[in-house]
Amino acid sequence: MRFLTASFLLMIFVFMILIPSGAAKDRQSDDNVLFYPAYGYSDGEEWVIPMRIYVYEYRPITQSTIRRFFKRYRDLTEEEENIFNSRIRDIVVDSESRERVLFSFDDDPQQEIFGVPGEDGGYQQTNLNGIIEGEVRISKERLMEIAKAQQSDNGRLTIRAVSDGHPGEGVITLIEPRGLSVISDVDDTIKITELPAGSQIVIRNTFYKEYTAAPGMAEMYREYGENVAFHYVSGSPWQLFRVLSDFLFGEEAGFPEGTFHMKRVPKNFLSLNTWRDLREVVMNENVTFDQKINQISQILDHFPDRDFILVGDSGEADPEVFSVIRELYSNQIRDIYIRDVVNARELNPERLEGMIIIPAPTIERGISQFDTAPETIDE
User: Fold this and answer.
1) 204-238 burial, b if ≥16 CB within 10 A, otherwise e?
2) Over the range 299-331, which residues count as b (16 or more CB within 10 Å of their CB) and which as e?
């Protein structure tokens, strides 16, 4: 989704720069905390939990201004305008820097306070993009006590922020060293985005239309059983996490819950890292390829004794990504499934060598399956 983040999101970011952030905030609200779903892996007598935390504040004036502009710019219907407004919710929020987030586990008998350790021995603060990333180590004995108090028998533990002015809650899932895990792509694998059709269709399907699940994929995933761990690795930016997870894990789509691993697209333009990362998104055609290799490799490194099933689609580089992963981690990969949306099984069968093909309707450039007429492409 390189063109999506490079053009459409940059346009929205420009609006955020032009509208003064101080005037756009709701000063009566707290700094909200988003705990992205995390997993824990075993390391000796400890559980190690890689965490990603985001601290933000809503900017209602910014969101309203951007909504009105795009309503006129795209000639949106009322339904499309409402969908667009919900999709940009986490793109236009104001990232809060230098915030220290502390959290606790629900029903913890000891009411212990935790944070993400920093290099100075204390707890990390959010960076200029409102993010805290790091590992939290907790003894297995302590987490067993907490799991018993929460009456959790599936490794799923709930947490909530306890630092002042930081409402937020989240989920951590402890994954046993042995078992079966599924690593899945999102766009055109389990959600119809139509990436090969072109940027205008992708932007419309991402921001203006109700999401549609890929037929049969949720049923396939649920058939693996309740004890399977799921990881969703996507080339979409982290700013779309909540709308994607709400859809995928909702009743209509019905996919099993799991962790997300997405593309970093920072938006604080006072940070040199923002300009560096945005340049990579715009100029580096392999940025999603590299992202997926790194994120999938990290998961496999954390669970060397688990078996993995990889599921993707042929619309972008999933077959090539999975081929690299299979070479690096041959003992851990049980199967690779590819939902073939560009008829690679006939046109480029070498891409899918050794992979299980899931037939799907072929996506053609400029044509959306939701339309009766081709879309005009203007990139």
Assistant:
1) bbbbbbebbbbeebbebbeeeeeebbbbbbbbbbb
2) bbebbeebbbbbbbbbbbbbbebbbebbeebee
Write the pLDDT tens digit of every residue in 26-44. 444 568 999 999 999 999 9
Which is it for strands 94-95 and 32-35: parallel, antiparallel or unpaired? unpaired
Residue type, 204: R
Any idea what DSSP says for residue 374? P
pTM of the model: 0.90
CATH number of 180-359: 3.40.50
Residue 147, amino acid:
A
pLDDT digits (tens, 9 = 90+) for 99-129: 999 999 999 999 999 999 998 889 999 999 9
Q: Are 214 and 190 in contact, with CB atoms under 8 Å apart?
A: yes
Q: Measured between alpha carbons, how far is 129 from 267 in angstroms, rounded to an integer?
A: 7
Evaluate whether 124 touches 117 at the Cβ level (below 8 Å).
yes
CATH 2.60.40 at 31-55+99-174, yes or no? yes
> According to the model, what pLDDT value does residue 64 have?
82
d(CA 66, CA 188): 28
| Residue ranges per structural domain of the chain | 31-55+99-174, 180-359
Q: At what angle do helices 78-87 and 60-74 cross, to 10 degrees?
A: 140
